[in-house]
């Protein structure tokens, strides 16, 4: 069950990562076209604002993919000094628990920002006057998805450790993806 859960999360996050990549490429294309237009005295205007929004949304959604790929920065000097796989697994669980808790707090702290925007129908104080809900809702959803992914990954890690499958646990929540070693 744990492996199936991790596989599903990985597939979902890979699809999200591709969509975010397309979003980034589209934004880069828009900025490039705007730069070219400026050479002939025209401009879309607001591409810097739009690219900031795209970066915020893309980063929030991309974090879960980073977790699925074990590509987040992690200080593991203590973990490397522990020889027994069981104790490394305990440290891995502690690490993913800390990440899950932290990301949940971040997501919870994002909500009041979105709630205020929705209540006030806030718009950006820029020439585009972008309705901020269009930006903040997907940004908030990305943080919530990251928290959900982190907690589900933690649960999968706990299940693997409880079954004594320390190698699979290390591949799922350890410091090194499958096939890599310290």
Quick structural overview:
With 182 residues, the protein is mainly α.
What would your notes on this structure say?
The protein has 182 residues and is mainly alpha-helical. The chain has 6 helices and no strands. The protein has helices at residues 2-39, 47-68, 77-81, 85-120, 133-162, 166-173. The protein starts with a helix and ends in a 9-residue tail after the last helix. The model has no long low-confidence stretch (mean pLDDT 90).
Ends: how far apart?
27 Å
Largest sheet: none
Rg over CA atoms, rounded to whole Å, is: 20 Å
Task: State the share of residues found in helices, binned by percent.
Answer: over 70%
Shape designation: elongated
Key attributes of the depicted protein:
182 residues; 6 helices; mainly alpha; 0% strand
Give the topology, please.
Layout: H1 2-39, H2 47-68, H3 77-81, H4 85-120, H5 133-162, H6 166-173
